[in-house]
């Protein structure tokens, strides 16, 4: 693999890595260019093992030898030489906008997302758990939910058009690479998706506060084999339309005058309670 040493933070070859802390810029820039940024050696390795293809890698000189195995793995999946950009710490930090100390960064090519129909078809006809995310804008929460999905045996995630990008570097890092192993896609329309789920035999359960909500403990006792759990945005929770379109509303009982948990924590509690036995 060609090792290219960079001394100028303005070098155009590093355009993929510029201003990684600017969420608004990156949320537009990365999908438009068909890339995402993987941060740290472990995350890059998991992306490669999931079959994702790198466009380039960026690291400090001292990481070349320790990460040789990852560099070899990156090259294995590509017929073209993958450039490895090497720079001093001050150059790396000036480009990225933060202290780059986790080994390496990689600009990865985004895989093509499946259609909702294809994703549901991959779940199969048996017991299944699908998670729906409506307009959750915090990348840390999205990543944490993906990690819970992977850890607690759910099968897939569907995200709304305005939901934060699961492949944004913070989501990827918080998920510990689970975004690479959990099947997911972005839905075009919430109502059409829930209709498709119901047509496929799923019961749609909205996790929300409502006067007619059933407790999670009671619902879990007779939970349906095929269940889609809907989770809403930080603060306001699920929209009125999403709640109205669900088959059932479920709540996690609270004490000490607390009305709800953070959405990522709530996802873990609910997925554990509703896991397929």
How would you describe this structure to a colleague?
With 277 residues, the protein is of the alpha/beta class. It folds into two domains: 107 residues, Ribosomal protein L30/S12 (60s Ribosomal Protein L30, Chain: A); 158 residues, SPOUT methyltransferase, trefoil knot domain (Alpha/beta knot, 3-Layer(aba) Sandwich), CATH 3.40.1280.10. It contains twelve helices and twelve strands. The strands form two sheets. A seven-stranded parallel beta sheet has the order 8-7-6-11-9-12-10, sandwiched between helices. Helix 6 packs parallel to helix 12. The longest helix is centred in the middle third of the chain and has 13 residues. The model has no long low-confidence stretch (mean pLDDT 93).
